[in-house]
Every structure is written in C-alpha cells, then in structure tokens.
Amino acid sequence: MMLSVIIKRTFVPGGFPIKYIDEIFKAIDLLNVDSKYVPREGQENLMLDIGEAMQGEAVLMAEAGVGIGKSFAYLIPGLIRSKRLKKPLIVSSSSIQLTEQLVGDIEAVSQILSTNFTYVVGKGRTNYLCYARYKSGNKHKDLTDILTLQEEWKTGFIKPMEKKKWCVDNCLFNQCEYRNSCDFYNMRQNLKPRYTSSVDCIIVNHNLLVEDLKKKVKLHQPGLIQEGHSIVLDEAHKFEDIVRDAFNIKINIKMVKRMERAIKDLEFDLGLNLKTMRLLTEFLEDFNRELIKIYAIEGKYILGNRLDIKELMSMKFKDMNLLLAKFNTMKSELRYLDFKDSKEKVYDELDEMIGTIIDYFESIGPEVSVYWAIYEKIFDVNGLALCSAPKEINKIIYELLFENQKSIILTSATLGGNVPINSAINQNRAYYEYQTQALGLPESTIYSTPQKSPYNYEENTLVYLPSMDIDVREDSMSNDIANEIIQLANIMDGRTLILFTSKKQMESVYGGMLLRKDTFTWKLLKQEDNGSVNRLREEFSSQKAVLLSTGAFWEGINIKGPELSCLIVVKLPYPVPDPVIKYKASTNPLVHEAEMMIKLKQGTGRLIRSEMDLGIIAILDHRIKAKKYILQSLPFRNVTEEISVVKGFVENKMAQYLSEQR
Ligand code: SF4
Q1: 159 neighbors 100 (Cβ within 8 angstroms)
Q2: Do 42 and 413 touch, CB atoms closer than 8 A?
Q3: How far is C-alpha 173 from the chain's CA centre?
Q4: What are 314-363's pLDDT values in tens digits?
Q5: Using a 6 Å cutoff on CB, does residue 135 contact ligand 1?
Q6: How many angstroms does the Cα of residue 131 sit away from the middle of ligand 1?
C-alpha cells in the first residue's frame, strides 16, 4: 500500500537531474531499516512532496500532524540538495526548542546518510545575553554573576523580565571589550557570508530571518539568503505575527530618555530640542492619563494587550501635526551639526530615533497602518508604548520572501482547518485558504495533502464535553468551571494542564479552587506573570499536579508520559478583537474561526506527544457542540458527555499507564 503511494508519483522536471529524487528514495530506505526510527507513511509522503517542490524550485505549503517527524521530512531532501548545489539550506523556526532539536536532527541525518552535514545556528538578538548591558547596569557585580545568569538563560529558567532587561539591544560589535566571550557576537561572525557559503545548513529563528530580509530589501544590504538557496519556514503559522512585530514602529518614554541623553551628548541645540522632547513626553503622559480613564476597570488584565486608541488619536491630530513638524525640523538641523568623530555612533542613533518618531506620526491617520497602545507596566507612562504597523503584512511578506526567492517550504502542525468557506478552489487549497491570504503566497504555490499524525487518537484518547452547558464567557461561571476541573483532576489524580484564554478568568477559577482545597490532594499550580515557563513545567512534571496556565502553555510545551494525562480547554481560543484582529477581520471573514482553530489545535496538541501517550481532553466551552467542524478538524474521535465514561476510560484503559509515573 505504502509502496504504491510512492511509486505513483510523477516528478516535475526542474534544475536537478532525476537522481535527486532517487537519493531521497534511498534515504527513505536507510531510514526504514534503521532500528531507531519507526517508518511513517505521512513522513515519507511529506519528504517526497518537499523533494519535488525543491526540485521544481517551487513554493510548497504542507501541514504535518504531531509526531510525523517533519524536521526529517525537510532536512533530508534539503540537505541532499545543499550538498549537490553547494548552496546551504536555510531552516527558520520560531522556538528555541525547535532550533535545538534541529541541531540534533542534522547530526542524526548525517549518521543515517553517512555524510557529514555542517551547520551554523543563529537566533534573534533578544535570545542572547549582552555582557556590556549587564555590566553597565550592575557595576558592582563581577563575572561570576554573569555566568550564573548565562546558565539560567541557557536552561530557560530565566524570568521574562530579566531576559528583557539584559538581552542584546544595541551591540557595540568590534568596540566591545566582551566580544570574544559573547555568544551574540560570535553568532553574527559565524553568519557572515564567508562562513555560511561553505556550510550545508543555516538554522535561524524567524526573528533573525525577518531582520535579515528587511535589511536586504530596504537597505539593499547582502543578507543570509542568496539566489538559489532553499528555505524552510517551520512553524510557519507564526510568521505573519513575527513580520508584523518587525515592522512595528514603537515610541515610548525609554526612547525619549535616550534621545535626551544623545542631544546633551552632542550638544545639539539644547534649549530648543529638549523643549521638543518635553512636548513628546507630555504627549505620552497625556495618553497615559486618558488610557487610565478608559481601562481602569480592567486593571492589570490589560497588560500586554493591544489597546484600541483610534478614537483617542482622532482627538490628537493637532498635537501630532505640531510634533511631526518639530521633529522634521530637528532632523533637518541634525544634518548640519558638527560633532566629534568619537560621537558618530551617538549621532547615528539619534538620527535613527528621530526618523522613527517621524515615521510613527506619519503612519497615523492614513489608511495604511493599524495602531494601538500597549502596557508593559500597568498604567505607568514608563511602561507604555504607542505602536503602529502596516496593515497589509501579506504584501510585505510577498516582497520580502516570495518576490525574490523561489524554493520555499512552509510547514507546521497547524496551517489549515475545516473552516467553512464557500470556495470553488481545490480541496487542499481551500484547507490552507486562511494562511494563503495571511502570508501572501504566490499563485503558483503547491498545496500538499495535510499529513495526519501517526498517533492512535481513536484508541488512546477520549474527549469529554460536559453535559451541563456552562457559559464559560460569563464571569459568574468561575465556580462551575472550578468544580468541573476538580472533578476531572480527582479522577486523574492530578496530571492535568488547564489552558485559559484570559488571566482574569484563570485567577478567578484559581480562587474558586483554593476555596475547595480540602477536596483534593494533588498540588495546585498557577502560572505567574514573571515566572519562568521552563521552571514551572519542571515543577508540574515532577509530581502529581494540576497547572492553570495561559499564553506560552498553548504552544511549544512538550511533556511526554503520564505526568500530563488530561488537558482541559476552558474557553475556545477566539482571538481578542484588538485593532489588528479587527482590521484583519474587515478584509478576511475567516479570521476569527481560523485563528481559533490554529490555537486550539496547538493547545490540544500538548496532550499526546508519543505513540505511548494516552489521555483525556475536556473542552468546557459548550459552543463546540454547535460547531461540528471544530471537532472534525481535531484528530480525536471518541467523544462523551458522561463523566462516568471518563472514569471508566481512566480505570480500564489508563490504569496501567498512569501507574508508570515516577
Ligand atoms: S558584543 Fe555586543 S552583544 Fe556582546 S556583550 Fe558586547 S555589546 Fe553586548
């Protein structure tokens, strides 16, 4: 059966001799006889689809279910291609875990194919600790402290705020005394064309790739990607957001302070320019006061959300025009400033920051941008940023990527879904319709048949939808939600991860559970704002625990075995209708359902992480019963509304499995 699937393929003649595909077949044979690997039809199909696309220099979109082994499916054809053409394969992903896994996978592929494939790894600047920045903020501390911090950084145990504080911001490069022991500096050296031209694979994350593409397209600087390179975008469903972030123009008080320091340092018409900076500070302070009035009731729960400021902005056009005129004047005057050679970096930075402010004010008003405010510290002007990003991110992606590059593979476990659409286009294309639009894919894109996960969901999982309809959108339902969770977690004896879409609801349910703490014996954990996700994951896995979580736990958490045997989705993860989502919905009616499906598939994908895993999925949001296509898009097939059936499944099917927990 499997052989006939493969033999029936027709190959597109491209820039390769037909032997290229033969080599992929040979690699599949080698993989199949290696006792360390389980043959998977989905992986082989995907590998051949990717090989054909690489041979035909085409853009391919391919969804690969959890456990397919998609990294082997693109590394094998990609690395064979890179050896043949002497052009490195570029693999970009969005998570550190995947980047690290890819390093191991390349070494494994080298062994299987008895070929030494070489690689370099690069990540975006926020993934590296800057020694110089740390030292300037901790003058009294010595190198031992930095080494401890570096260790926490590498294990992922570092707290998010610490990471933000000490990550690379403005690198001094060759002028930095710490450069020889700096991972960021060394990474940038390794990514120079004279090194990358001789490696077989360049592993990067999306942030670095986008930063590089942006420089290449906007500043016409040579980048990582050269003509003839083949690119794989893994976790491609994240790419649109990462491009939006990269093009987001942001102004905040931190920037104002840096500008003031630079103006003083350059002695640049101090009286006039510091007065202009004061006006900008007042503009931000005024905004902060107005936002407090609007969002006071929601309090800390708006942290990190994109807040709608369209109406507020419309009342401030006069102030903005005044500021725009003043910063335009400042920029012109700066051109004629005499400054010492030693101040060149300060001058360039100031010039860039003035440009950012002008770009920001120019972007407000015309219908080309979407804009919002965001708080990092609640209702504190020092933690407020005003942001603006282009509306049509798909056109930018097209310009950055598809216009100049031919061989591009986009893959992920969540690229499509059975979102109901009226479309005359072919079935595969319809399945990927949302991402096709969001990522600006060219007409010539090939759509691979989605490859299903090889795991036996039918035998190994049970979906529980409570028979009593709880309106999980209502604040007053927190106690009912807490009761459902406790009931399920008691059946599972802990081992339960709960995914919330809002911190407010999570805290309210947590409060309800604490009131009933005499009804359970497992450890109750809750994700905290500034806690390390890795540390919390370890704490959860090391005991019988129930973890209430949001955000990061919906994606990228990999807990195999009985430690995680029950996953509860409280509310279907429809996106918050913030300015970006509102704009997207105005141009693409699929947005709400499609974004929800991507997140739901990612979230529920946390439960079964290997062939051996068994588990219960509970979805408390009763809307799922009316929208049949949601469950049809998920791999689970056994569904019950009876808690007694859940109990029976756990006692009969899972007892032995659960007893294996250390
Ligand atoms: S080389 Fe750059 S990133 Fe590294 S420590 Fe120095 S300034 Fe920081």
Answers
A1: no
A2: no
A3: 28
A4: 999 999 999 999 999 999 999 999 988 889 989 999 999 999 999 999 99
A5: no
A6: 6
Given a contact cutoff of 8 angstroms between Cβ atoms, the answer to whether 568 and 509 are in contact is: no
Are 101 and 21 within one domain? yes
**CATH number reported for the structural domain that contains residue 91 in this entry:** 3.40.50.300
Is 359 contained in some domain? yes
Residue 140 placed within a domain: no
284, 304: one domain: yes
Same domain, 481 and 501: yes
The verdict on the CB of residue 323 being under 6 Å from ligand 1 is no
State the closest ligand 1 atom to the C-alpha of 129, by its place in the atom list counted from 1.
3
d(CA 149, CA 529): 20
Domain boundary among 390, 407, 437: 390
168 CB near ligand 1 (under 6 Å)? yes
Which residue's structure tokens are 């970096």?
345
Q: For a substitution probing ligand 1, which of 129, 178, 180 has the most ligand atoms within 8 Å of its CB?
A: 178
Provide the residue range defining the domain that includes 517. 457-658
| 547/607 same-domain check | yes
Please report the ipTM that was assigned to this predicted complex. Answer: 0.99
C-alpha distances (whole Å) from 504 to each of 199, 446, 578 are 48, 43, 17
On whether both 346 and 415 belong to a single domain, the answer is no
Per-residue pLDDT tens digits for 546-598: 999 998 899 978 899 999 999 999 999 999 999 999 999 999 888 999 999 99
- For residue 300, tell me if it sits in a domain: yes
The answer to whether position 173 is within a domain reads no
Pairing relationship of beta strands 566-569 and 496-499 according to DSSP bridges? parallel
Low-confidence ranges of the chain (pLDDT < 70): 1-18, 142-143, 366, 418-426, 661-662
Expressed in angstroms and rounded, the spacing between residue 130 Cα and the centre of ligand 1 is 5
Q: How many domains does the chain have?
A: 3
Taking the centre of ligand 1 as the mean of its atom positions, its distance from the CA of residue 210, in whole angstroms, is 21
pLDDT tens by residue, 601-617 = 999 999 999 999 999 99
